[in-house]
Amino acid sequence: MVENDTTGRGYPRDSLLTRIKGIIQNNPVSRVAFALILISIVFSFLSKNYFKASNFISVLTRISELGIVTVGITFLMISGEFDLSVGSVYALSGFLFIQLANTGMFSPFALLITLIAAALMGIVNGLITVHGRIPSFITTLGMMMVIRGSLLGITSGSSAYYEGDNIIPIILSKALKYNVRPSHFWFFGIIILFSLILTKTRYGNWIFSTGGNKETARLMGVKVRNVKLINFAISSVLAGFTGCIVANRFQIIAPAFGTGIELDAIAASVIGGTLLMGGSGSIVGGALGASLVALVRNGLVLSGAPPYWYRTFIGIILIVIAVINLRKKVINY
Predict the structure, then answer these.
(1) pLDDT of residue 3
(2) Distance between CA atoms of 90 and 173, rounded to whole angstroms?
(3) How far is residue 205's CA from residue 133's CA, in Å, rounded to a whole number?
(4) Which of these ranges, 93-97, 214-218, 327-331, has the smallest mean pLDDT?
(5) Residue 22's pLDDT is what?
(6) Does this model's pTM top 0.85?
(7) Alpha helix locations (H) across the chain?
(8) How many CA atoms lie within 13 A of 194 on its CB side?
(9) Looking at the DSSP assignment, which residues form a beta bridge with residue 253?
(10) Distance (Å, rounded) from C-alpha 74 to C-alpha 273?
(11) CA angle 71, 76, 82 (to 5 degrees)
């Protein structure tokens, strides 16, 4: 007779391993967390500086800035829409903030006006998409070009330097002890806030319903158009907020700032488990996806690999995780 190999409690010895494997396979957040650990281990062998505290703080700054944009993108993608204009909104917001503050305006007022302007840009995206019935991919691609082109035209490609007061620079990005920055705390605060909204409020349910099946959502009384308009505004506000953080960190903004961040944010959101067609995703997953994207870039630089390979690695990770997430979704249905 063959006896089962069991623990003292009567469970198979491999039950814990099986459960861990099941969690990783069935939970998008667990998958990206596992990928983060695996990638970090690999890069730690390739570079002795990878796990140094100074490098951790440096990459956390990049994670925070990309992560805040990713939170807004994730919110919007769960409701079934895209926003390719966030990089342009990011740059224009940083430029607008600096120009307003440089006139002598109280910097908190300059920030408030900038965020209102960013929200209006998002609402314009939403109105064109929702009422014009134009795919958000096309709407925001066009808006990306309009905003970036206008910024280049207004500035003639020149950078703007910050000469305002120190209030907002201190609040948003001035380095603290050990080079920790306020943007790190803003990032974690935004994760908590939007996670609670998404998982603990009626509005969060409306977002999932809108992205999952908008016709069913309408029958349930959800104002689908309003949900999408609000989420477009949120996406733009968070992009604009990040642009202001970066402008204050460098004390300068260039028209090219934020180029490509929209693709990184969308990739991070999908890597974190957000479905491209909407209806599924999480803020924590998006934040972990942003962490993975930033860590891959950082690890490649530290290991001496040509920076041109960065998008190749992210593309491979994106395709693999997107296929896994989609297959799991189909199986669950």
Answers:
(1) 46
(2) 16
(3) 23
(4) 327-331
(5) 62
(6) yes
(7) 15-26, 28-46, 53-78, 86-102, 107-132, 136-155, 167-172, 182-200, 202-212, 214-219, 224-250, 261-271, 283-302, 310-332
(8) 29
(9) 160
(10) 10
(11) 110
How much is the pLDDT for 12? 55
pLDDT of the residue at 81: 95
What span, in angstroms and rounded, lies between the C-alpha atoms of 30 and 34? Answer: 6
Q: What is the mean pLDDT of residues 80-98?
A: 97
Cβ neighbours of residue 312 under 8 Å, at least 6 residues apart?
Answer: none
Cβ atoms < 10 Å from Cβ of 154: 13
Non-local CB neighbours of 144 within 8 Å, separated by 6+ positions: 84, 85, 87, 88, 262
For residue 58, the model assigns a pLDDT of 92
Do the beta carbons of residue 235 and residue 118 sit within 8 Å? no
Tokens, residue 104? 């002598």
CA count, 13 A, side-chain hemisphere, 218:
6
* Token pair in block for residue 46: 């390739």
Mean pLDDT along residues 258-285: 92
pLDDT tens sequence across 300-317 = 989 888 877 888 888 888
CB-CB contact of 85 with 117 (8 Å): no
Q: Which of 186, 211, 222 is closest to 74 using CA atoms? A: 211
Which pLDDT score is estimated for 11? 47
**Which residues make beta-bridge pairs with 62?**
none
The SS3 assignment for 253 reads strand
Q: Which two tokens stand for residue 88?
A: 């342009």
- Pull the structure tokens for residue 198: 């998404």
Tens digit of each residue's pLDDT (9 = 90 or more) over 196-254: 999 999 999 999 999 998 888 988 899 999 999 999 999 999 999 999 999 999 999 99
Domains present along the chain, CATH in parentheses:
36-332 (1.10.3470)
d(CA 274, CA 28): 9
CA–CA separation, 110 and 103 (whole Å): 10
Instruction: Give, in order, the Cα–Cα distances in Å from 51 to each of 58, 122, 164, 288, 289.
Output: 11, 39, 37, 18, 19
